[in-house]
Amino acid sequence: MPASGLRRAATSLADLLADERSRSAIALTMALITVLATAVAFLQQDASIRSNTANREAERIGLEAVGYDVGMIVESSTDYGVFRRWFEELERQAWANQQAEAERDTETRELYDALAAVDGELSEWSRGQSRLLQPPFFDEATFETDFAAYHAELVVGPQMRAKQEHDARLATGAAWGSRALTYVTILTILAAALFFLGLATTLRGTARPIFAFTGGAFAIVSLAWTVISALTPFAGVPQTAIDEVVSAYVEMAQYDSVRSDPIEPDRPRYEAALSHAEAALAADPTYPTAYLARAEARLFFADRMYFAEDGSTDEAVGLMERAVDDYHPYLEDEPEDYAAWWNLGWAQLLAGHHAESIASTDRALSFNPDHFALYHNRALAELRMGDEAAADADVETALRVFADADLDSDAAFFVQADFNMGRLVERWPEQAEAVERMQRRLREAQVSLEALDAPTPQSDAPEVEALRLTALQLSPEGELVEDNAVADGGSIAGAGHVGYRVSIRAPGARLAMSVSVRVWRDGVLDPGSSVDIPWAADPQTSQTLDIVSPYGRANFDLDPGRYELEIYIGGATRGSITWEVERAG
Amino acid sequence: MNEDRGSDALSIAIAVILAALGLAGALIAWRVGDASNRASDATQEGVIAARARSAEEITADGLVAQTMEAWLEYERARRRAESLQRAGFADQALGNAMQAAAHWFLVRPEYLDDEGNYDPRRHRESYLAEAVTRRDLDPTPHYARAAAEESRVRSLLLIAVLLATALPLLTMAGFTGGRLRVGATAIGGAIFAVGTVLRIVVWL
Q1: Would the ipTM clear 0.85, i.e. be above it?
Q2: Cβ atoms < 10 Å from Cβ of A510
Q3: Which residues of A touch B87 (CB under 8 A)?
Q4: Each residue's pLDDT tens digit, A337-357
């Protein structure tokens, strides 16, 4: 029955289309399709214009951002320049006051007094010339400047805002562009509909209803698609979401950058950053950067917490897990963001997901194979999985990349990796020995690269027979004079000491052989204390060298903290001393 | 006979309006293409002007920074010289005045206010105002022109949609008869007339 019903329907349609009236109906349909095609053409042009407008706006924002960035670099350079001059005036004033106090000659003392007064006036005047010396960045009570807040609000915030607004406009442009393409497709289908209907008017018999029906079906599909496309709302990223993401990054930029400092003072910043990221997600649950902001708010705080002495490993791991959850939706949308893959791999490593960490790091490496830190991270994950051979191989690759790529950022990542390994020795007791070995390899490679221009120490480096460290004072005549010796594991007072004299006895040393000293304070390498010199002493006597910073030369006391000094000869570790500098008072 | 003549006249009118519709569509398509090109050119000119402005702003920032540095050093030495002179140390004051003089050649006195303070904003604005006389640095009129042409494209296409609605009416008039035929032709003709007037308004 259904088959005969279909046959009857086809026959009826053929009859209906067979006569002259059917031609008229087809012609009318074609006319209506032409109207629809014209309307679609209008919608296509409209979408295209909207796309152009959004792209134009993105270009404007991009150019303005470049202008702002350059302007800000120049302005902040002036602000810092004034800050330096202010500091200089304070130091001059302090010096003039000291001299006046010690001076017996009245006329000379009057000159010192006048100089102190002038410097005082000038320091006051300087304060009006720099934003670093004015609220909200300057605390009148403590006379301290919040450099991080200055950088966050005047550099990070505007940069992030420009990037987000630029990206949002580009996304709008792309969405309208895509819609314009959809209308082009619809126009093509309408052209096909007209083609079939046109053929139907010239054909007879059963071919006519088939072509007429096909043309009509194409037209109906086009109409439906047009209506759906035109009525589908396009929601760009709301400004509130962008504002919240910017605020989150402004907070994050003020996390303490000193890795060894206590973590708890950063907690309010972390909570504020998290709250802003969550507000951004509430405003737009599909905004990928809001997921990234929440992931980074958690990861950066958790990372500091994991390595800080007062941090809770359990809490840090919990935060890492949640950061990992946020990286996934972000990376679905931005799969080529190598930095996000890098951070995801790091979060997975510290959260204990070692295989996943290696996979994420591999993704980052596929986009950027020249980053030493990525191989180092993978080596740590391999170490945690018990594959020491793979870890050693990755450390060597990391060092080769470090030597070949010559990225400026690698030096900073080296300092970070070195600090992390120092803490991981405590956090990962099962791998402590292997981590210590890895750290030593990296340190020797870094020294060898600086001193010998090769990542491997000299194999014939002589042993150090005696290593002596003495605290230095600055005499009233401006001479550096030795005070008490610093014992390994001992402590000295910071007050009154300005630096150290290192005395090395290595009978096997040859003239011009490289001697290097590196100093760490609270686990962080102090680049200002690094010394690389050629061995210049008689091998039977001692080679001495002084480690005195510009602050020490100006008679500033040593900073308190836990210190570690290592001696390298020909790039090979040949001795170390650890000591504590006590806080004054 | 009269009825036949009337029918023939209507047929001719339908054919003429349909032909005119085709011509109008072609003209609109040409004008849309032309307006789109103009919009694209204006956008490009706007981008070039915006990039030129950005480059001039960077130059201005560099110049202002250089002047600011010189003024800070000059002013510090000058103030020190004045204070030491007041305190009766003329030789020290002279030394500082000489030091101040070393920085003066880079200071732009025209941008110092009555109290001797350097006004970087005025210097920057002045530089940019001068730069405008050398190059086109303002993207706004170009973007406005692009927006106007884009608006014209939209309007022309809307008129095209309006004109297209005459097509089914005239098609219907082609195969119907009586009052329906006359009515459809009249409405189709009226739409064509309105569309043509609007097209002329938007065209100009």
Answers
A1: no
A2: 13
A3: 110, 114, 117-118
A4: 999 999 999 999 999 999 999
